[in-house]
Specification:
The chain is mostly beta strands. It has 3 domains: about 1-45 and about 485-605, Trefoil (Acidic Fibroblast Growth Factor, subunit A) (Trefoil), CATH 2.80.10.50; about 55-325 and about 420-460, Neuraminidase, CATH 2.120.10; about 615-730, Trefoil (Acidic Fibroblast Growth Factor, subunit A) (Trefoil). About 5% of the residues lie in helices and about 35% in strands.
Length: about 725
């Protein structure tokens, strides 16, 4: 007998049969049922929307008020320690003087966004202060924003501080001249703004809602619109802007990389220090740019260093060609640093402050083809187990569509695997890893007078949640992918059944059961985050099962049906007369009409089972004193008693001695005690076991924290810092 149920929770009791684990699945419609120490029922829906949404769209009136072509671009986002995401983008609408950057927030990890505030220009923020005269000419907070959360203290700036670097400017005389001549004129190109510079701001609220202007990182001159347009005020027809800041911390200093169209006559090949061209402000411009960086100690009394070249074409000794721009830099797992930039450029160095004498390298897929042949490159790191990380890459290449490339080894010499996303291609596509979900949020802006800013999510594997093997009742094999993590149209592979542990990438045999609307479920593969789907969306019997990017379409949505023998059946939501069916070992699983031979019966075997959790800093385990309800969790020598055995459930609970770990009194403030309490289903008793080993409370986003290492050290909630006192391993 089959009944239509939401994704089930798994009891903690298990039996061994024929050398494999079998998990008895008990479900009651609409009611959570306690069996022993396990709760059975549907997991509360976690926010996850892979299909694109709109963060901001100009009104029809605003579209007629743009002050440049391509007026809404360059979205960027960053994750705060609290779990809030903050985003911003260029919005060149209305008078250039007084232009601001809109600041948006997401408190559901990227599923929805709301306007938070506007960030003003340096002139506006220093007006009426002793700094007014120095910054009065920077009247517009204009474009190319970059958001960065400090991972550590830098001078007077504390870890967790959100920084924003952006291109600021003065007025656009060319725009004003055209409007004066023809009030109905609408720009079709960029204009000719003056006094371009890169400004640095810091959030003072911890929420992205209140900001302080810190300083000017670098200065340029006239915009010049790539040499195409000049205002009459631009006497020497200059093109000397600075663009595209990128921030990171290295050796205790803040590093700002950026694109520079100022002219330099040479640079020191030992230090990379540039010599300015004395005729920079008056000589005919070559309309080229170079990549440079500066450093800052973070101390108020200190200024930014002199610029050091990274990549250049027109400066003597350079090995690059073209017009490089849009620097991004990430560490690699083999101890190096990878830089990408426009024109398909990439370099590798042992030192992120020394790229100027390194050759260009080619990023390649497994077939040896280049994957970076265009502009707008973005690199991010995505944490994985054992302190390692993957690198995710995205650029404007039309051949890539809206896809990303993943370097699963994180090595400077690693190959890059193409993975589909549901967010379309665009000139500006930003990637932000969200530790609370383990997914990547994509923001998109595209060319056009006033196109919207869009957002979406992509799962690239190891997203937060419980994972299961699906063991077939008839064959005893598990549902796998033939050792591939890639979308089936790229890999040529299909979903099959295979012996557990028989492949080199064992993550391909584990699946994340992800709740969707109307009680349906998507099965996301642990290795690449691809969804279990039906090849080419077929609704006919005999169609092969395949991997595909999760796009919420019906061929990737399944009904989980409970069977009386404790197994489940996967019913297709696109044709409810069809079920996922195992065939011979190593051959594709298919859809078929109902059968009773066991080939459609699957046992869910959880990856996270009962275990102790050992603190990395102390080597001691989480412990509930005497298993007493109301007691605060502590650290204690690992002895394996029942008061140290923690059992995760699909609802996100951590069960110990018949109760649940939770935030005392549903509190969300740092310092809240973590206690054992009767299981009540509250979000304060739900936890995420993150990839880095931290354990986060779903209500507050705070993580388990210990302030010492000795026996009896209390455990409370604190903002995530990544320190060893907040990381735990299974024991």
């Amino acid at each position: 007998m089959r009944s239509h149920l939401p994704p089930p929770s798994i009891p903690d009791s298990r039996t061994i049969s024929k050398h494999r684990l079998a998990v008895r699945l008990l479900s009651v419609l609409g009611v959570a049922t306690v069996v022993g120490s396990a709760i059975i029922g549907a997991q509360p829906a976690r926010a996850y929307v892979p299909t694109p949404g709109v963060m901001y769209a100009p009104t029809s009136t605003e579209a007629t008020q743009v002050n440049k072509a391509n007026a809404v671009l360059y979205p960027k986002a960053a994750s705060l320690p609290s779990g809030r995401l903050v985003a911003t983008f260029e919005r060149s609408i209305g008078d250039p003087v007084g232009q601001t950057l809109p600041i948006y927030k997401s408190d559901d990890f990227g599923t929805s966004w709301q306007k938070l505030t506007d960030l003003s220009s340096p002139a506006a923020m220093t007006k009426g202060t002793s700094r007014e005269a120095a910054f009065a000419k920077y009247t517009s907070n204009w474009t190319n924003p970059y958001l960065y959360t400090l991972p550590q203290d830098v001078g007077s700036l504390k870890a967790g501080t959100l920084l924003l670097a952006s291109v600021v400017s003065g007025d656009d005389p060319y725009y004003k001249e055209q409007k004066a001549a023809n009030p109905n004129w609408v720009p079709t190109q960029d204009g000719d703004r003056k006094d371009l510079a890169i400004a640095l701001y810091a959030d003072t609220s911890g929420t992205g809602s209140s900001w302080q202007f810190l300083n000017i990182v670098a200065t340029g001159g006239w915009e010049g619109s790539y040499g195409n347009l000049h205002s009459t005020e631009n006497t020497y027809a200059q093109n000397d802007p600075v663009w595209e800041p990128f921030l990171m911390v290295y050796n205790g200093q803040l590093v700002a990389y950026y694109s520079d169209e100022n002219e330099y006559s040479s640079y020191d090949t030992s230090t990379g220090l540039l010599t300015p061209d004395p005729n920079n402000a008056t000589a005919k411009d070559p309309i080229t740019q170079i990549l440079v960086h500066k450093t800052w100690t973070g101390a108020t009394a200190d200024g930014w260093s002199a610029p050091v070249v990274d990549v250049a074409e027109t400066v003597a000794g350079s090995s690059s060609t073209g017009r490089p721009g849009m620097t991004t830099v990430v560490p690699t797992t083999d101890g190096k640093w990878l830089m990408t930039f426009e024109q398909g450029g990439a370099r590798v160095s042992d030192n992120p402050l020394r790229f100027w004498d390194k050759p260009n390298v080619t990023l390649k897929n497994a077939g040896g083809q280049s994957i970076h042949n265009a502009g707008s490159p973005v690199l991010i790191t995505v944490p994985r187990a054992n302190g390692k990380w993957e690198i995710v890459f995205n650029n404007l290449d039309g051949a890539n569509g809206g896809d990303v490339y993943v370097n699963t080894t994180g090595s400077s010499t690693g190959t890059w695997t193409r993975m589909r996303t549901s967010v379309g291609a665009g000139y500006s596509r930003n990637l932000t890893y969200v530790p609370q979900t383990g997914r990547v949020v994509i923001l998109r802006g595209n060319f056009g007078a006033a196109n919207p800013i869009e957002f979406g999510e992509v799962d690239l594997g190891q997203s937060i949640g419980q994972y299961y093997q699906l063991v077939n009742k008839k064959t005893g094999d598990v549902l796998g992918t033939g050792n591939t993590a890639q979308d089936s149209d790229f890999s040529g592979g299909r979903v099959d059944t295979e012996t557990s542990g028989s492949v080199s990438d064992t993550d391909t045999q584990w699946w994340h059961l992800t709740p969707k609307a109307n009680g349906k479920t998507t099965l996301l593969n642990a290795s690449g985050g691809r969804a279990l789907g039906i090849w080419q969306g077929s609704t006919s019997a005999g169609a092969q099962l395949a991997l595909w990017n999760d796009d919420d379409k019906s061929d990737k949505l399944w009904n989980l049906l409970d069977n009386t023998d404790g197994t489940i059946t996967l019913q297709s939501s696109s044709n409810t007369s069809l079920y996922a069916t195992a065939n011979a070992k190593g051959t594709p699983a298919t859809t078929a009409t109902a059968t009773t031979d066991g080939s459609q019966n699957w046992t869910l075997v959880p990856r996270e089972t009962a275990s102790s959790r050992q603190n990395v800093a102390s080597g001691r385990c989480l412990d509930v004193p005497n298993g007493t309800t109301g007691a605060q969790v502590q650290l204690y020598d690992c002895v394996g008693n029942a008061n140290q055995v923690i059992t995760p459930t699909r609802s996100g609970e951590l069960r110990v001695a018949g109760g649940c770990l939770g935030a005392e009194a549903d509190r969300t403030a740092p310092g809240t005690r973590v206690i054992l309490w009767s299981c009540n289903g509250n979000v304060s008793q739900q936890w995420d076991l993150r990839v880095d080993g931290s354990i986060a409370n779903r209500l507050s986003g705070l993580v388990l924290n210990t302030s010492g290492t000795g026996n009896g050290t209390p455990v409370s909630l604190a903002a995530a810092t990544g320190s060893s006192s907040q990381r735990f391993t299974r024991r």
